[in-house]
């Protein structure tokens, strides 16, 4: 009788994937999806009827969560698309360095100084409110190995 051999699978990746597959028809507006290899928030979706020979197609418009750039894609509704793992975290702003880096403190008290002041209106608002002495919380979005501050709010937990 032949011995049954255990099959052993090896993966080429050391950690968790930055994305996971999801059927196109299951994606929703305001959800996330990878468009042109960039993590995007879906802002528009429309489904066309099935053609004579084909599948219903889903037309998606997404905004890059880091650059704000607009991307579009059309995909058969039965196909899978990659969805990025997106993590949101709030940090307390403790300082802004002279070279434009934020000093942020997490809930556990750990400090990080690896994120720059965001570009545009958000960065100007952040600097202005910090300069007036407001206690600010910065919302940091992390996905696909990238991170950036996407929102700020006044830290009401520290109001006297």
TrEMBL record:
Database matches in InterPro entries: IF5A-like, IF5A-like_N, IF5A_C, NA-bd_OB-fold, Rib_uL2_dom2, Trans_elong_IF5A_hypusine_site, Translation_prot_SH3-like_sf
Keywords in alphabetical order: Cytoplasm, Elongation factor, Hypusine, Initiation factor, Protein biosynthesis, RNA-binding
Official protein name in the record: Eukaryotic translation initiation factor 5A
Cellular component annotations (GO), alphabetically ordered: cytoplasm
Compartment(s): Cytoplasm
Domain Translation initiation factor 5A C-terminal: 85-153
Gene Ontology biological process terms from the UniProt entry: positive regulation of translational elongation; positive regulation of translational termination
Similarity comment text for this entry: Belongs to the eIF-5A family.
Annotated function: Translation factor that promotes translation elongation and termination, particularly upon ribosome stalling at specific amino acid sequence contexts. Binds between the exit (E) and peptidyl (P) site of the ribosome and promotes rescue of stalled ribosome: specifically required for efficient translation of polyproline-containing peptides as well as other motifs that stall the ribosome. Acts as ribosome quality control (RQC) cofactor by joining the RQC complex to facilitate peptidyl transfer during CAT tailing step.
SUPFAM superfamilies cross-referenced by the UniProt entry: Nucleic acid-binding proteins, Translation proteins SH3-like domain
Gene: LOC113205282
Organism for this UniProt entry: Frankliniella occidentalis (Western flower thrips)
SMART domains associated with the record: eIF-5a (SM01376)
Gene3D superfamilies tied to this protein: 2.30.30.30, Nucleic acid-binding proteins
Record-linked NCBIfam families: eIF_5A
PTM remark: eIF-5A seems to be the only eukaryotic protein to have a hypusine residue which is a post-translational modification of a lysine by the addition of a butylamino group.
CDD domains in the record: S1_eIF5A
Any Pfam family: eIF-5a
GO molecular function, one term: RNA binding
Record keyword Repeat present: no
Major subcellular location class: cytoplasm
């Amino acid at each position: 009788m032949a011995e049954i051999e255990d099959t052993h699978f090896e993966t080429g990746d050391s950690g968790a994937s930055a994305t996971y597959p999801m059927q196109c028809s299951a994606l929703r507006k305001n959800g996330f999806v990878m468009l042109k290899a960039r993590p995007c928030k879906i802002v528009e979706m429309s489904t066309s009827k099935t053609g004579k020979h084909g599948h219903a197609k889903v037309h998606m418009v997404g905004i890059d969560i880091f650059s704000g750039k607009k991307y579009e894609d059309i995909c058969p509704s039965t196909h899978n698309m990659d969805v990025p793992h997106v993590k949101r975290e709030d940090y307390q702003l403790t300082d802004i360095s002279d070279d434009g880096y934020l000093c942020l403190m997490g809930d556990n008290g750990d400090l990080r100084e690896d994120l720059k002041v965001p570009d545009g209106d958000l960065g100007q608002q952040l600097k202005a409110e910090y300069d007036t002495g407001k206690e600010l919380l910065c919302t940091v979005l992390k996905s696909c190995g990238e991170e950036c501050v996407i929102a700020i709010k006044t830290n009401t937990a520290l109001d006297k």
